[in-house]
Amino acid sequence: MTSKGQYLQTTMNESDPAWNLNPAIVDANAVTVDPAVLLEGYRFILTFMAEEGIDSPLNGGGVTAAEWYAENEDQIREIYRGDVRKAVVEEEGRHFVLTESHWQGAEKYGGAYSYVYDPSRPRLLSRVIRPTNVWQVDSDALSVAVKADVSYEMVVLPKPGTTEELVQPTNGFMTYSAALEPDGKWRIEGYDHDIKTTEAW
After folding, report:
1. N or C: which end of the chain has fewer CB within 10 A?
2. Would you say 54 and 173 are in contact if contact means Cβ atoms under 8 Å apart?
3. Residue 103: beta bridge partners?
4. Residue 43 dihedral angles phi and psi, to the nearest 5°
5. pLDDT value of position 107
6. Cβ-based neighbour number of residue 164 at 10 Å
7. In angstroms, what CA-CA distances link 41 with 73, 121, 136?
8. Beta strand residue intervals within 37-163, DSSP E
9. What is the pLDDT of residues 93-143, one digit of tens each?
């Protein structure tokens, strides 16, 4: 549930072509990692990328940054939480997850620009995540990174005075790294992205 209403948050599933790791994109420094462990970390990162990197309730301002951080803190390595909190809550540096709330509520739109929130369907019209590189990260724990080209479309409310829903396209790349910690959980410890979103209005 968000302050703007409910929606069906999207995730990864086994039918997605990206779900199975293509050995051709695995860097030489990661081939010594147990394949089952590497696949587990890879899928954790892809799932985080889909659910929070792209389709987070924070994207669009449905929750506050503090609310998002409290909900997701356990998915982030403790040694990295200060950096993430600065990026998300204090809005310093590049966004840890993609947010478009600077448009949604912008004065030039009169606060009317918003994704569609409907409990019976996603806000995401389409999404392609195409992993291009997987490698082992130099860290104090077993850590892997996944870089992927991403392309997706979000459904936006009609302009005032019209009835046709519009589409907001985004293209670029996203990278997240995650470490396997002693409690057996993978947690995010790094990120990078270069994304271009085109306003629907």
Report:
1. N
2. no
3. none
4. -70, -35
5. 67
6. 6
7. 18, 29, 11
8. 124-136, 142-156
9. 556 787 765 666 566 677 788 899 999 999 999 999 999 999 999 999 999
Amino acid residing at 85: R
pTM, two decimal places: 0.93
- Give buried/exposed letters for 182-193 (b at 16+ CB in 10 A, else e): eeeebbbbbbeb
Q: What contacts 168, CB < 8 A, 6 or more positions away?
A: 100, 115, 153, 154, 155, 156, 197, 198, 199, 200
Helix (H) or strand (E) run with residue 37 in it = helix 35-48
Both tokens assigned to 51: 């659910």
**Cα–Cα distance measured from residue 154 to residue 168, given in angstroms and rounded to the nearest whole number:** 5
Contacts of 177 (CB under 8 A, 6+ apart): 45, 137, 139, 143, 144, 145, 146, 188, 189, 190, 191
Largest CA distance in the chain: 59
Q: Is the pLDDT of residue 76 over 80?
A: yes
pLDDT bucket at 60, cuts 50 / 70 / 90: confident
Q: How far apart are CA 10 and CA 42, in angstroms?
A: 18
**1 to each of 4, 24, 69, 150, 161, how far by Cα in Å?**
8, 40, 16, 26, 28
CA distance 148 to 92: 24
Which amino acid appears at position 14 of this protein? E
pLDDT at 162: 94
CA distance 41 to 46: 9
